[in-house]
Amino acid sequence: MRLVDVRELPLDGIESTADGGLRIGATVTNSDLAAHPEVRRRYPALAQAVLAGASGQLRNMATVGGNLLQRTRCGYFTDLSKPCNKRAPGTGCSAVEGEHHNHAILGATEHCVAIHPSDMAVALAAFDAVVTYESADGTGQLPLAAFYLPVGDTPHLETALPAGALITGVILPPAPVAAHSRYRKVRERASYAFAIGSITGALDVRDGVVREVRLAFGPSRPGRGGTGGRAGPDRGARRTPRRSPPPRSAELAAARPLPHNAYKVTLLRNLVVALLTELTEEAAR
Ligand SMILES: Cc1cc2nc3c(=O)[nH]c(=O)nc-3n(C[C@H](O)[C@H](O)[C@H](O)COP(=O)(O)OP(=O)(O)OC[C@H]3O[C@@H](n4cnc5c(N)ncnc54)[C@H](O)[C@@H]3O)c2cc1C
Ligand code: SF4
């Protein structure tokens, strides 16, 4: 095995694209990403999501490419004495019958209920980010919704990246609604902990009418059936801070909780209400 340090590659820039989006290099550190003025102004939930992850020291070292490709924290995945379909396909999933109170309720199957721990990916999913890469066959792009493969019965296959490909960056398309966005993360202690539930929300309300709304949930495998699907109240619905109709989410309706993580359905629903209330109040100011 050969270890290659990609951090010296010239992929550490953040620049505006001609259409008003942002291009973020793969080796941009999490700290630099969260501190960048254009990220904070145009996609504030992304900056908040990154700052909610890990610790200051880790964020100074972690990169965009590495954060997207980090592996699950499921304890059975690293416990060689226990069956795990992700580590050893076809052996079974120890978490389904065992310890799963922190495991995924979205995008999970009976073959694997592991979460993907990236906070950043939840915000990127809400903003329709596109991952760019270079492989032996040339350059390519994958929308985040297609970057992470559905879990299905092949949890060991995590991304659609070609073998040996190098992530070169992430493109954020222009999204005016993203300027009115927030990230909320619930964890078991106030800092330096992975999410047990998280949400990115963006809301564009003008003259009391919802023009656009986006919601993405975590933690789960981002993408189809995970955080990539976006849901929320109807566009055109009249919203006031005090009289918001209960939000509907097809994605939450499709949650597949297990006995010890069913609490997450309520937790995510409450996060939706809290976040939309905050964003609505902000819009009314
Ligand atoms: C204790 C701890 C707590 C954490 N808490 C959180 C948290 O709460 N939220 C959160 O989102 N994250 C969290 N993280 C993850 C952390 O923020 C990093 O993103 C993660 O550890 C990956 O580190 P890295 O970026 O240095 O990537 P590496 O560890 O260097 O790489 C990870 C993988 O990606 C591959 N890779 C890296 N760059 C590229 C590229 N450009 N192209 C192709 N492949 C590439 C590597 O080969 C490797 O397989 C935590 C990590 C730790 C250790
Ligand atoms: S949840 Fe996934 S990673 Fe964890 S034991 Fe089951 S198959 Fe393995």
What report would you give on this structure?
- With 285 residues, the chain is an alpha+beta fold.
- It has a single domain, classed as Uridine Diphospho-n-acetylenolpyruvylglucosamine Reductase, domain 3.
- 26% of the residues lie in helices and 19% in strands.
- The chain is built from 10 helices and 8 strands.
- Strands 1-2-5-3-4 form a 5-stranded antiparallel sheet. The protein has a 3-stranded antiparallel sheet with strand order 6-7-8, with helices on both faces.
- Strand 6 and strand 7 form a beta hairpin.
- It is globular and about 55 Å long.
- The chain binds flavin-adenine dinucleotide and iron/sulfur cluster (SF4).
- The site of flavin-adenine dinucleotide has 21 residues, from helix 4, helix 5, helix 7 and strand 5.
CATH topology: Uridine Diphospho-n-acetylenolpyruvylglucosamine Reductase, domain 3
- Separate helix tally: 10
Q: Architecture, according to CATH?
A: 2-Layer Sandwich
Globally, the shape reads globular
The hetero molecules present are: flavin-adenine dinucleotide, iron/sulfur cluster
What is the distance, rounded to the nearest whole angstrom, between the alpha carbons of the first and last residues? 57 Å
Number of domains: 1
Task: Indicate the mean pLDDT.
Answer: 91
Portion in helices: 25-40%
Low-confidence stretches: 224-229, 238-246
Number of strands: 8
Task: Output the helix-strand order.
Answer: EEHHHHHHHEEHEEEEHH
Strand order of the largest sheet: 1-2-5-3-4
The level-1 CATH class: Alpha Beta
Helix-strand category:
alpha+beta
